Each structure stands twice: as structure tokens, then as C-alpha cells.
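Lab notebook, bench 4. Still working through the backlog of constructs that have no structural model yet. Next entry is a single chain of 306 residues. Request: give me the C-alpha cells for it.
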Amino acid sequence: MRIIFAGTPDNAAKTLESLLASGLDVVGILTREDARIGRSRVLTESPVASVGSKHGIEVRKSNSISVAVVEWMRGLEAQLGIVVAYGAIFGPDVLETPELGWINVHYSLLPEYPGAAPVQYALLDGKEATGVTIFRLDEGVDTGPILASKLLEIGESMNASSLLLALTSVGSNLLLETLHNFDQRLDNQIVQERSPLIRVAKKLSRKDAKLDFGKSARVVHNMVRAMNPEPVAWFETNEMSVRVLETRVSNVTGIPEGEAVLNSGELLVGCSDVALVLLLVQPAGKAVMAGADWFRGLRQQKLLLS
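Model written out:
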């Protein structure tokens, strides 16, 4: 089967590598254009583009689906398209281009959490499990018929980065199983029933990542997990912005909401029920450090965080 692959970030690159390692015939790759990343703003190709170049596969770089891109796709004469986090919506002309259409790897158990940030929303909501869904693309947002799905338990210490890594592994294997039994999966596809109450996992911004210590410690802890590695949870104190990368829910009570103090060598901040331990923080313009070390450097007995 001739396959065209569309994707951009690391998890898409890992999925592509698994397809190639299994001997599948990927005849073309669509990815986003080179972007400037890091503090040095070096122009860098996407992880998917790097994999394609390494394997000698034709790579097309585009941030949108132009007429020229569609014509390029048609010229590949691919039978099936696979998309993993490409970063653009496909219109009817693209969806109809491969003979068998397109399938997508989505990191939730659809119809739950359609949208751009399903991994983060599962953590935000304190889910104990999530999963991966392989489905056929249509013109909706993650609304196409389901070909396969698999559940994954969420570990207590997982953040968005580690959870995505685990889901990528599960998704890659599930994708291969789906492709090896593709006709059977098509015959048994399940039409999604989408409730209007379903929570859409919209992309999260820095504004969404501001911590509110008036909520329970578990809710704040889950936000920290969900926002790591991006956009990263944060708070303000004395007009200084501080990122929070790792926390732990304690059993300490009696600390006022938003008040930070040292307790048994750890930095605790009061929430609406119990205190939250700030394990790793990053003050603006500085390196990541232990929360207690940051607090000691301020030479304060207590501090109000907002």
C-alpha cells in the first residue's frame, strides 16, 4: 500500500519511524515549513522532515494546503493518507485525494476530548485513564468513524510530556495493527455519536496556565502536570513571574490560600483544602531549581503568591 504521511512534531516523527521500521511504503511526507526555535531563533526543520530526509523520502513543506500541494499529493498516487499532528485542517480536495482517504491518530478515546490538546485536558480533568483512537478523517474536527482504540492508564507522576510519550508508543502500535487488518477495520468502523456536552480540547495559552491557589491542591497539581512542557503553569509574586514545573499534594493543613512557607525543608503553598508542595520552579530569566532553594534565596519567612 502506497502511503502519504502528514505530521510535524516529535510524536509524529516517532510514529513515522515505526511505520518505516515495519516496512510500509511511505511515498511522500507533508510537514510544516522550517521554523525558528529556541533563544537563538535558529531556522530548524520539523522532526518529521528530519525523518523523511534521513530515509530519502520526498518531503513537501507547507503551512497550508494550497492547490500546488494538492497537485503534489495527487502525483504521489498514494492509496492511503495518515496524519499525526500536522497542524492544519484538510478540505474535501485533500480528503478525496488518496484512494482510501485519510486516517488520524488522536490521543484520546473519542468522542471524548476532540481538538488540539486532548492529552492536557485529560490531565486537567484528573482522569485516571485516557487512550488513543484511530479514525477516518472527515470535514469535522475529529468526528470521523472510529477504526480502533486502546486505553492507557495515567500514572500519578505523569505530566503532559511523559503521557504523550506513552500514548505515542501505544498509538504507533495500534496504527500498525490497524493497517495490517485494514479491510476488517473498515468493515467494522464505528460512527461517532457526538454529544453537545462533549468538552472540546482547545489549544491552551499562557493565560490558561495561571495558577489559582484558591482551588483545591489536587486541581492545582493537575494543572501543573497538564501545562508541562507547555505553556507551563505559573504564578506571580512581588511583580515577578515564576513558572511551576513539578508539584506534590501534601496532607498539611492550616496554611492560608496563596501563602508560601517552608515546612520540613519543602516549599508549601496553601490551597483551598491542603497545601501543595512546589518541587520545581523557574523564576523569570533563571534556570529551573528546587522550590525550596528559590524561596530560601528570597530570605522571606512567608510570601503571597497570586
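Notes after review: The chain has nine helices and 16 strands. Residues 207-304 form a domain with the Methionyl-tRNA Fmet Formyltransferase; Chain A, domain 2 fold (CATH 3.10.25.10). Flag for follow-up if needed.
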